[in-house]
Amino acid sequence: MAATAPRVANTPVLDAERVRRDFPILDRTVNGRPLVYLDSGASSQRPVAVLRAVEEYETHSHANIHRGVHALSQAATEAFEGARERVRRFINARSTKEVIFVRGTTEAINLVAQTYARPRLKAGDEIIVSELEHHANIVPWQMICEQTGATLKVAPINTRGEFLFDEYVKLLSPRTKIVAVAHVSNALGTVLPVKKIVDAAHAQGAVVLVDGAQAVPHSHVDVRALGCDFYAFSGHKLYGPTGIGVLYGREELLQSMPPWQGGGDMILTVSFDKTTYNDLPAKFEAGTPNISGAVGLAAAMDYIESLGLDAIAAHEHRLVELASAELQKIPGIQLIGTAPNKASIVSFVMDGVHPHDLGTILDHEGVAVRTGHHCAMPLMTFLGLPATVRASFAVYNTANDVKSLVSALGKAREVFG
Ligand code: 7TS
Predict the structure, then answer these.
(1) β-bridge partners, 370
(2) Does the beta carbon of 130 sit less than 6 angstroms from any atom of ligand 1?
(3) Is the peptide bond between 259 and the residue preceding it cis, with omega within 30 degrees of 0?
(4) How far apart are the C-alpha atoms of 299 and 217, rounded to whole Å?
(5) Among positive and negative, which fits the CA dihedral 19, 22, 26, 28?
(6) How is domain 51-305 classified at the architecture level of CATH?
(7) 344 lines ligand 1 (CB under 6 A)
(8) Hey, CA dihedral for 299, 344, 92, 181, is it positive or negative?
(9) How far is the CA of 136 from the centre of ligand 1 (A)?
(10) What pLDDT does 10 receive?
(11) pLDDT at position 9, please?
């Protein structure tokens, strides 16, 4: 099978066969077959560079941070704060004060909901989310609505999975206080026009949180160019460890927000009469953080930038085009989500076969895909589907993986008739 996307002159090329050698897990077999990992949207695999960085830190430099005068504590603090600077450069934040380490996207969104939105919003205020959001970018806002009396509004999409910008603009008004949207849909791969969404929201005085969980692994994200107020993502979808993620927030907003969790590290002084809080970013990082996770995330960012995000984007685009074209040749397959601007994800259903059954057959063939509602139940309701099968692509996938997927689907077609 040849890649269907035209090779544009000067498009950087990624040598995926070489990249694969950086990911030891890809050598293993599943059900006696070579692993074909097409579930990086749920969690990507880690390159040796990340595994080694974590091991090196844990083996030689671990201690608690920000407290010891001893050498190991200083080494650990340097590693952790060095990772924060690495993240700042990766997303082009102005200052490391704007980079808050959290457990992941879910925690980042809840932090903003509880410390930015909850104290400010009241009955009559509105929060806008889009129809294709992951539950992590719906439920925290519903909780805020319950807690404050604010109302949740939903910006619609069409059946191709495109965000309807003009309909969104109609929902905006001075009542809109927060707009929370995905940068890339986890279920469909649609890329949302975030810059335009931000500009329109700002014109009404609303702040914008972008859920970047599915965007940061696949394209350059520059939070200043986007102009967003908050940007959330997880390390484990970015070739880094689990349990570490980032909340970017504009310094002025973070300064104006009360702390979230109370405890060690987030205070300056504590007495039973009055406690004073630490400066950013420590104000939002109560307790001992995931130090090795931050170290691993920094190593993942080094790794990604060594491959080049333009090369990664072009490579994954070719795979999405190829998979979309090949899947449509299989009788009874329908692609779900056909927006022109998509990143790394191909969702589909097969006539007469439940996605879970299809997923099980694919697993027998060593092909790992995600099946289900993808934590986007309102989107599935809109599409009139209980579930889809989702293949998601990463730097280590190749045209051979697409071939394996297509061949496994061919077998499923035979089994189910
Ligand atoms: N937002 C989006 C767009 C996501 O894709 C996910 C996880 C989250 C938020 C939550 O991230 P977490 O790291 O805090 O769990 N998405 C998926 C997925 O698509 N399949 O498994 C997890």
Answers:
(1) 390
(2) no
(3) no
(4) 14
(5) positive
(6) 3-Layer(aba) Sandwich (3.40)
(7) no
(8) negative
(9) 7
(10) 67
(11) 55
Q: How far apart are CA 299 and CA 302, in angstroms?
A: 5
**Confidence at residue 416, expressed as pLDDT on a 0 to 100 scale:** 86
Token pair, residue 87, equals 């993240």
Tell me whether strands 345-350 and 388-392 are parallel, antiparallel or unpaired.
Answer: antiparallel
Query: Where do we find the tokens 């002159």?
Result: 9
51-305 and 16-45+308-416 share a CATH fold? no
140 CB within 6 A, ligand 1: no
The parts of the chain modelled with pLDDT lower than 70 are: 1-10
Q: Whose structure tokens read 């085009």?
A: 321
Domain boundaries, the chain: 16-45+308-416, 51-305
Residue 311 has a pLDDT of: 97
SS3 34: strand
The model's pTM: 0.97
* Rg of the chain, C-alpha, whole Å: 22
Q: Which two tokens stand for residue 338?
A: 């056909």
Task: Fold for 16-45+308-416, please state it.
Answer: Aspartate Aminotransferase, domain 1 (3.90.1150)
Please say if 375 is a catalytic residue.
yes
Cβ-based neighbour number of residue 97 at 10 Å? 18
How far, in Å, from the CA of 331 to the mean position of ligand 1?
31
Question: Contacts by 193-200 with C-beta closer than 8 Å and gap 24+?
Answer: 193/163, 193/165, 194/226, 194/228, 195/225, 195/226, 195/227, 196/165, 197/163, 197/165, 197/168, 198/226, 198/227, 198/228, 199/227, 200/165, 200/168, 200/169, 200/172
